[in-house]
Every structure is written in structure tokens, then in C-alpha cells.
Prior knowledge:
Structural class: alpha/beta
Distance between the termini: 7 Å
Number of helices: 7
CATH class: Alpha Beta
Number of domains: 1
Radius of gyration: 18 Å
Strand content: 15-25%
Amino acid sequence: MAEKSALPVNVGIIMDGNGRWAKKRLLPRSAGHDAGMKRIIKLVEYARESGVKYLTLYALSTENLSRPKEELEGLFTLFRKYFEDYAPKLIGENVGVRVIGDISALPADVADKISRVCSRSPSDAPFTVVFAVNYGSRAEIVRAANFAAELGGKVTEKSFAKLLYTADIPDPDLIIRTGGEIRLSNFLLWQAAYAELYFSDVLFPDFDNKQFDKAIKEFSRRTRRFGKI
């Protein structure tokens, strides 16, 4: 029997709207990304306090790597700052920090900072923030299929899921997209099979704690059937 949803365990967020936020204020796109990073820092703290166990943030897609060099350099600078200044503090507070995606395509120093931080992440943390960096779900699925082919034998949904970046991370219960667009944009396509979707017109830098609560409240009102009656 289907039941009303409780608090989601894993909330995924497609953080859209940084560039438009900056454009509305006649600012460079870099200002929007900077504002978005500040919102991430506050949102991670708030999500942790709210009781969810995982917050999965779409920080950089594989397609985003085709953006202008100047914009990418600005993003990489923000990654450097986050993983050098903020992420270690989270780990010191027993918060897990994970990254999914192909970080080998990032500048070497950025990839190194990410790897060093994640290697120190506690395995039994009560709350974990997961960053999808140079992540694309289609690429992830192809990667897993190649691993499965190398291993040989029959593939099941369960065995295939263990070959994904998210092998030991619960599937998202709720995926939020900010910025007014209504699509998943290659984010956790396999994992989102039964996720509840929530779309907000609010640009990500303005997606404050009240907006997060609004999404959680909407999730709690929904009935999840997982294909059942």
C-alpha cells in the first residue's frame, strides 16, 4: 500500500540560474557563480540541520566544459576555494564530502584538491554532501556498461548499479531544479527512476532556506507508489 512521503533521504539539486541571476543585475556571469557558491555553503548547512542524509549537487556537467575559457576558469577558482577552505571544515565536523564524475578532465591542481579532500571523508558520516563535477549520466552509464562487459557474465539491475559512481549512495528521493527550466539535463538518469521531481522558478542564488523547505513540504505531501496501486 502506498504511503505519504516522509523526509527524503537524498535530495538532488540541479542548481540552475547563476548566469541569469547575474545578467538581471548587469553583472558578469562570474558574479552569478560566486553568488551560487555562497548559496551552496549556506544550503549545505541548512540541509544538514533539516535531517536529510545526502545532498547531491549538480555543480558542473560534462556539457559545461564547452563553455568559454574565462567562465570555466572562474568556476575552477571557486572549486579551488571550496575544496581548500570549506570542505575540510565539513570533514572536521564529521560531514561526508563526495564527488561523482570524471575529475581527470579538470585542471590537475583542482582534481588533486578534490581527491585529497574526498580521501579524508568519513565513511560513516550522518550527513554527506555529494558534488557532481564533470558529471553526465549518459557517460556514467556507458562507463558502467564497459565495466560490466570487462567483468563478463549476466548483468542485473543490482549488479549494474554497483558499477555507477553512486554505488554506495542511496538513489535520490527528491530532485529539485531551480531557475524555471523543466528537464533533468543528464543528471542521475538511472538513479532518478522513481525520484519525485520539483521545479522552482527561483534562480539558484535566490533559492534560500524557505524555498528549500517549500520543496521538502511538497515532497512530504506526495504519495510514492513505485509502480504499485
